[in-house]
Each structure stands twice: as structure tokens, then as C-alpha cells.
Structure prediction request, 217 residues.
Amino acid sequence: MTKILAVSDKVVPHLYDSDVRQRLPRIDLILGCGDLPFYYLEFLQSALDAQVLYVHGNHDQKPQFTADGRVLRDVQGGIDVHGRIVTTHGLAIAGLEGSMRYRPGDRYMYSEGEMRRQVGRLLPRIVFRRLLRKRNLDILITHSPVKDIHDLKDLPHTGFKVFRTFLKIARPKYMLHGHVHHYDQVRQRTEFEQTEIINVYPSYLFDYDDPERISTD
Prediction:
């Protein structure tokens, strides 16, 4: 069983605290779903002694700095999983960064067509892996939601249609995303095909208890 802490979009005071290890004595893996300061993910990694895997969000455009003025270009010790498959703790995890493009030229924003190309590069590797190892992807982490699942009507918060195709083919057990801030205390969780889609904003703790899941092929 792998205990996972997923975070997105907001620094949570009770996590960004010196006592976090007492509150969460055992975390195996930290998954960042975008729009978070690198120092926050680095703190969680160090304080909880857990591997960080992450993707960028649409607001991760500007340089980030430490308290002593150093420029942070990524999460030191973390793994950016955009467009990749990373296996850790027996789990195969892939990532897709960014949001729908609502301004020209910004990094970590994609039109539907641009995201389709990102998915088109990643999916063949997932399919090949399934044929080789006879198991599906375990977790997909993204910043943006799926079109018509947890998204909003305004362009910046519209989800990607191509994520539906991805989920139908890759069949991960979980898709974790952020980007859409919900304040009604009701966790956004939706079943789609074989995947449970969860909006993790601002944090979500869960156990992955099936690391040897076999493909349904």
C-alpha cells in the first residue's frame, strides 16, 4: 500500500509547517498538480522524506526565488513528469502540464490542438508499456481537468477534450488534477470509464492499494 499526498494551487498552512511530520508520519509519495511554489514542494519533500513528482500549472510562468534570493528553475530532487512515464513505489505515473491557452505565447498553456500533440507523443509509450508489461498506467497527474468533468465555462478553466481520449486508451486507475478551486467542502470525484478523476485542490491524501493491477486487455 502506497500512501500518497497530492497537492495543487495553494500553499496549505497545516502542511507548510514544522510539525507536518507529526501530523503525517508516513507519506510515501507527493504528487504536485501545478501552480505551487517550488519551495513548498521542496519543503514537503524534505519534511516528509518522500519523493515528489509534479507538473507545472498555467501560473508557473514567472521566475521563483528562495528567501535568500536564489532563482529556482525546478523542484530540487523532484521529477517533472510532463510527457513522461515514471515508475516509483511500484506505480506507473504519467503527467501532462498546463491549462487551456487564453493568452498567446505563455509557457504551460496549450490550445486543444497543442495538447492533442502532447498526448499523441505520450500515448504510444503507454500502449507499448502495457503490451510489454501487461498492466495499465496507474496514475495520471495533470493541472487542467477534463472537458465537461470538473471544469468551468470560462476559457482559462475549460478542460481538454483530448484527455477523454487519453483516459479511454491509457485507463489509469486515478487521474489527479488541480486548477479549478472549489470552496464548498465537497470533494470533486467522478468516475469516467475505468478512471476515478479527483480534483485534489488544495490537498488530498489517499492510499493506493493495488500496485499490481493487471490490464483488462
Q: What stands out?
A: The longest helix spans residues 112-133.
